[in-house]
Write a structure and sequence with these properties.
heterodimer; A: about 250 residues; MetI-like fold; 10 helices; about 0% strand; globular; B: about 270 residues; alpha/beta; 10 strands; about 40% helix; transmembrane (chain A); membrane (chain A)
């Protein structure tokens, strides 16, 4: 079949999803697989209904989303100006390069024990995990993005009377913004990885906690529901982010 | 060195510029781009510098704008040495150098914004120069929606709005098609006649030089020096009639002879 319109490809995608879920449901209903091992979609759905009714699903989802957003926001707000500054100064790049190089390879997971020792099982500890996991890579994305600026534009700006600070604000920031945003989109995914890991290890709420708790009580449906919720939440945030991106970059239209 | 006359705007005094070549076979070797070059530009003069590619014309302009430092000698603007990038020498680049994320309006207002001029005054002055270059109605367009000729007009308006003492134009029309180029040349002459800015204009087109200039300098190939100086006494407006006059032909022949000699010399250098 030839796909030549967006609506056609959407239709194909929907059919594909329906077939996938129906097959899964049938395999479980026909007793090929133990429900404890893999519950049917309908079972996950009824678990979802129950958890929506008692408010747990929403509160876990919101808890994780809030943690990601706060950690990611703080990390971006520090990384963007700092990255632009480092991208425009060879001296300070040389000063900070060894520190960034040391921090960059550390997976966010490796910060969990230290953060627990320092901050305990607190919200601040969750934010700090997201921050530590996304800061160094964000910074590198932003430094890289500043290098894509045409040096002629910096020259032109200086020629029109812009100070070095003006150049950062008026030329380097807007000029590298498309690439910064592309980088931050990737970082948002990483931020989710961070928070789920942190919640799997130690938490009192959140989707990671919900999954781990489900496992403790052999509620495989809760585990799967948590995973589905992560997917859905990340997808929703991605759509919102894209809307936001278009408003921020009117000249790319 | 002669004492400067009071109406000297720019004085280039014994300027030498040496580059270290960074790549290729000649890595680490010194390239003398300009050697002991001196020239003066008077207030309100339209100086066109003609030269083959690679003769150091752009290097000279970059030194005047303060983008680069000379290895020896000095450049004076109104009697004071140029030590760094100065907005008093407004540069127009061949590649326009418009900010893609700013509208025409915002581009034209950029210099005034840097001077922290109030928004209202900025807008009024910006509108005036957008009108002068004939771009009324395009204030809210982004550069990538404009043609090359329109982009260069925005760039000219942006420079004029910033009120520089001197305008430096580095082969500004080289990337445009012949028709557009002619329109912009005529527009530039009109702007020059009206605003009497001091202009240094670089080109490799002899016709362009004759059409625009009040004075022409021919530059030699590496190391760049002044080979010939011609006062362009052709009457304004330099319309088709002037371009067919015998004086025009005479001047063109004169310039061509010295440019040709320089091109031949530089080709020999390349062959070495």
């Amino acid at each position: 079949m030839e796909i030549n319109t967006p609506s056609k490809s959407l239709a194909v995608s929907i059919v594909s999803l329906v077939i996938f879920i129906t097959t899964w449901e049938l395999i479980c209903r026909l007793g090929f697989i133990e429900p404890l091992f893999l519950p049917a979609p309908s079972q996950i759905l009824s678990r979802a209904v129950k958890m929506i009714e008692n408010g747990q699903l929403i509160s876990h989802t919101l808890a994780s989303t809030r943690r990601v957003m706060v950690g990611f926001f703080v990390s971006s707000m520090v990384a963007i100006p700092f990255g632009i500054f480092l991208g425009s100064s060879r001296f300070f790049m040389a000063v900070f390069d060894p520190i960034i190089s040391l921090l960059r390879p550390l997976p966010s997971m490796s910060w969990i024990p230290l953060s627990l020792l320092w901050l305990g099982i607190t919200e601040t500890q969750k934010y700090s995990i997201v921050f530590m996991g996304s800061f160094a890579p964000s910074l590198l994305y932003i430094i890289e993005a500043t290098k894509s600026i045409d040096p002629l534009l910096i020259r032109a700006a200086r020629n029109l009377g812009a100070s070095k600070l003006d150049v950062m604000k008026e030329v380097i920031l807007p000029g590298s913004l498309p690439q910064i945003i592309a980088g931050l989109k990737v970082m948002l995914g990483i931020a989710w990885t961070c928070i789920i890991s942190a919640e799997l290890v130690a938490a009192r709420e959140g989707l990671g906690f919900m999954i781990m708790n489900g496992k403790e009580y052999f509620q495989t449906d809760t585990v799967l529901l948590g995973m589905v919720m992560i997917s859905i939440t990340v997808m929703v945030i991605d759509v919102v982010f894209r809307k936001f991106e278009r408003r921020l970059l009117p000249w790319t239209r | 060195m002669d004492p400067l006359t009071p109406d000297t705007k720019i004085a280039v005094q014994n300027v030498t510029k040496i580059f270290q070549s960074k790549q290729g076979k000649k890595q680490g070797q010194e390239v003398v781009a300009l050697k002991d070059l001196s020239l003066e530009v008077k207030d309100g003069e339209f100086l066109v510098i003609v030269g083959a590619s690679g003769c150091g014309k752009t290097t000279l302009l970059n030194l005047v704008a303060g983008f680069d430092k000379s290895s020896d000698g000095q450049i004076l603007l109104d009697g004071k040495p140029v030590t760094g990038i100065t907005p008093e020498c407004g540069m127009i680049f061949q590649q326009y150098a418009l900010f893609p994320w700013k509208t025409v309006q915002e581009n034209v207002e950029f210099g005034m914004k840097m001077k922290r001029m109030p928004r209202k005054d900025r807008k009024a002055r910006g509108d005036r120069f957008i009108d002068i270059v004939g771009l009324k109605g395009f204030e809210r367009s982004y550069p990538h929606h404009l043609s090359g000729g329109m982009k260069q007009r925005v760039s000219i308006a942006r420079s004029l709005a910033n009120d520089p003492k001197v305008m430096l134009l580095d082969e500004p029309f080289a990337a445009l098609d012949a028709m557009t180029r002619q329109v912009l040349q005529e527009q530039l002459v009109r702007i020059y006649e009206k605003h009497r800015k001091t202009i240094i204009f670089i080109t490799h087109s002899i016709d362009e030089a004759l059409l625009l200039s009040s004075r022409i300098m021919v530059m030699t190939a590496r190391p760049g020096r002044i080979a010939q100086e011609i006062i362009n006494d052709l009457p304004y407006p330099r319309n088709a009639e002037v371009q067919l006059s015998s004086r025009y032909m005479e001047l063109k022949r004169m310039i061509w002879d010295s440019v040709q000699a320089e091109v031949m010399k530089s080709m020999e250098v390349e062959a070495d």
